[in-house]
């Protein structure tokens, strides 16, 4: 168990693949910068890989005060054991007070192993983070400047705030897209701490024979306009209208989890708590009921238009404009009107 270090840095584990930084690490620097400033400590990024130091300056430009960069041939491709071993050793040596990971497949695999090794708590899939105090009900003990780890619970029906006053570092994984990408300051300067991880071949549990990468079919986070279909679309054939409306607007196609689970569209298109969090200029929700899990991923869109045959659908509670009607009639009219104006 690592004793609390209330002067320790705030750390962000910067995920990379083949030397390319994952967006979630850069997004976490935005929130990490806010937390570090509140605590009066430094913000550090941990960067591991085979040839990754070239990314260190980019992390500094996105808000890091220092980058702890470790390069080793055995870190060329992600494997749980060596990455967890190195990060746990760094935590025990530097004693940060907060360590943040992206809630990606890699982060969800790595963070629990690190937490177990250093005997710390871990809150998964956070959607927000803050700094505050906590008073123990049974002892009236007061703890200040704790990390509030905020996440949906019970299927998204409540928002839970979790604190860890005793076992440090305070650790959390944070969902991709929920934090804003920080502004880039090309003139910003910081410290790069280079080290060579102490690893041996036995630390690799697997031998990678072949490495392949596939890219997502759609980049919802970058889309300015999204047309999303939900269970109310009624079927894969009707989903064609969603695609047609999106094509007429030059928009990306999104979907609710219900539509994805029904097999009408690939998971890459899923928006919501278990999908992608988006902030487009325009979000058109077609046949989307508006469950809290879906709203968590799109409620920050600048303009939301809802099309639904149910006037009581929750989606109308967040929509700026609502159309109550059969999508098989409404969408062709919208497409026709758009084409006439082009």
Task: Please describe what this structure looks like.
25% of the residues lie in helices and 27% in strands. It folds into 2 domains: 10-203, Rossmann fold (3-Layer(aba) Sandwich), CATH 3.40.50.620; 220-341, 3-Layer(aba) Sandwich (Rossmann fold), CATH 3.40.50. The chain is globular. The protein is α/β, with parallel strands linked by helices and 342 residues long. The chain is built from 8 helices and 17 strands. The N and C termini lie far apart (64 Å). The chain has helices at residues 23-39, 56-61, 80-94, 105-118, 239-249, 257-261, 292-295, 327-341; strands at 10-14, 16-17, 20-21, 43-49, 66-71, 98-102, 122-126, 128-135, 142-153, 158-162, 170-174, 191-195, 225-229, 252-255, 282-286, 303-308, 321-324.
List the helices and strands and how they pair.
Layout: E1 10-14, E2 16-17, E3 20-21, H1 23-39, E4 43-49, H2 56-61, E5 66-71, H3 80-94, E6 98-102, H4 105-118, E7 122-126, E8 128-135, E9 142-153, E10 158-162, E11 170-174, E12 191-195, E13 225-229, H5 239-249, E14 252-255, H6 257-261, E15 282-286, H7 292-295, E16 303-308, E17 321-324, H8 327-341
Parallel strand pairs: 1-4, 1-6, 4-5, 5-12, 6-11, 7-11, 13-14, 13-15, 15-16, 16-17
Antiparallel strand pairs: 2-3, 8-9, 9-10
